[in-house]
């Protein structure tokens, strides 16, 4: 089993990656069942991937458990050096990784390259942070004691990554785990397993010892997820995906009181106040809404625009959206790629139909684009009311509803009126308003006069039912460490 000839021809170094769909590379028998990976832009068959299932997950966990003590026993510098070599290989092969990513996920090639660079940045960051796992000494209550705190790796980590950012999420989850001294079992999304496989192939080349980074391809995640949750060798789960699945994982981990990091759904408000720079707000809204065809957990889902600038914003924003070219991610002018599958198309169509039925107005787009791919035209709706599905549910597509508001305090209350609390954005120039609104928004991340805020140096994560824990920054390393207090008597 191999990658398609079309995909192989796009790679500069195919010899590094052509085996990632081969059962032998994963130590599997030749007759292992497979599942297909297709290009959502063209329907092209890219590869048949070994379906490792629950047995494969259990074997990977065993390997990770066997390797855990040795990997944790290395010096921080030794782990850092290996991560650094992996970072350098990712940077060196950015073009190939981006081509694989675009083929299986559909996003424009420029966005794919940016994502791979972002993945490399996480590897670099945690290669450096590996050397900064510090303990502490505590003043003792008596002269014959010494009190010390040390930090140790939590153990085997199960990482479950999503399809929308299949490269950066691999790096963001497993690089802090590896830096802390944990071994990893990685289960990538079934829609986009190839770039994860390519990254693991480069991890092998970087020199990680056997069993430290383990890959599990699976056609469905339920069985593998249960194995990760119920297997006592796994000490922590890190998951990015829907809130519904996050709740399920929490329930399955409860009996073992297993540590969890969850980055779940969002319903991000994007607020434009009367005192905002409207042109800058339009630029920010384009970024926050249409990056990755709106298929991001931090995508602007509800655009609230104050009455004094509503019409100007709606006109300028609609004009910009109308210029966004939709097509195959490999086409040079493409700004918006396909949705991941037919279910995503059906959801966005249902949201548009519901809004129109309840009085919403389509300013541009509003329709799927005929052809082999799962394309939907970038869409702007106005006349939105709170009873519409689009005002209550995460759309996850290139659909921007604009909601007119008048009262500044009321819009903050409406923005907070959701079970989600991942990301929020607002544009304003009055400094007093900036502070008040930033502090009042019940979200883990707030973009102020910007539509893009993700960085390896900053803590990424949400509150309420958008998850728990943080990824990125120095705080992201703490989720993979256990604190141990040592009290030494008889000194």
Automatic annotation (TrEMBL):
GO molecular function, one term: succinate-semialdehyde dehydrogenase (NAD+) activity
Keyword GTP-binding part of the UniProt annotation: no
Record domain Aldehyde dehydrogenase: where: 33-485
SUPFAM superfamilies named in the record: ALDH-like
Gene3D superfamilies registered for this protein in UniProt: Aldehyde Dehydrogenase, Chain A, domain 1 (3.40.605.10), Aldehyde Dehydrogenase, Chain A, domain 2 (3.40.309.10)
One BP term from GO: gamma-aminobutyric acid catabolic process
Pfam families, A to Z: Aldedh (PF00171)
E.C. code: 1.2.1.-
Key words, A-Z: Oxidoreductase
Enzyme class, spelled out: oxidoreductase
Residues of the active site: 263
InterPro entries named among the record's database cross-references: Ald_DH/histidinol_DH, Ald_DH_C, Ald_DH_CS_GLU, Ald_DH_N, Aldehyde_DH_dom, Aldehyde_DH_Superfamily, Succ_semiAld_DH
Regions crossing the membrane: none
Family classification: Belongs to the aldehyde dehydrogenase family.
Name this protein carries in UniProt: Succinate-semialdehyde dehydrogenase
Species annotation: Shinella zoogloeoides (Crabtreella saccharophila)
